[in-house]
Amino acid sequence: MKSNDIISKSDLTTRMVQLQAEKQVLEQQMKGSLEDLVDSISPARAIRNIVGDVLSDKEIHHNLTSLGLHMGANLITYKVLGKNKSIKGYLSSALVQQITTTLINNNMPAILTGINLLIDTVLEDDEEEDLEVEPRVAGSS
User: DSSP strand E in 51-131: where?
Assistant: First the structure.
């Protein structure tokens, strides 16, 4: 029924009911589209996608892991031994850095395996959370 076909009050009432139904359908579609848009531009999801893409390249993954482990070992050595406070501190921190570098380089496959297992566990947990959907009560927003 078009607005030109409205002749009586009952036609008007019928048309109003049709338009309200169409409005509700369109609002639900827009709400769903908006939720999808917000979900797709979520910073957490964007970071997760970027990290997932970067970590899928084995060479980049290996290089970043190695760099992070070395930087972490150097930071801990500096904080614990006080690298620049004395000659004794400098020599002991240099020795500890050499030992940690050797340990990291010699055990890199085992370290990478552990990190991969950790990442896989975290990603599986995130996917399970994404799959959980809260039931909605009719009439609630």
Answer: none
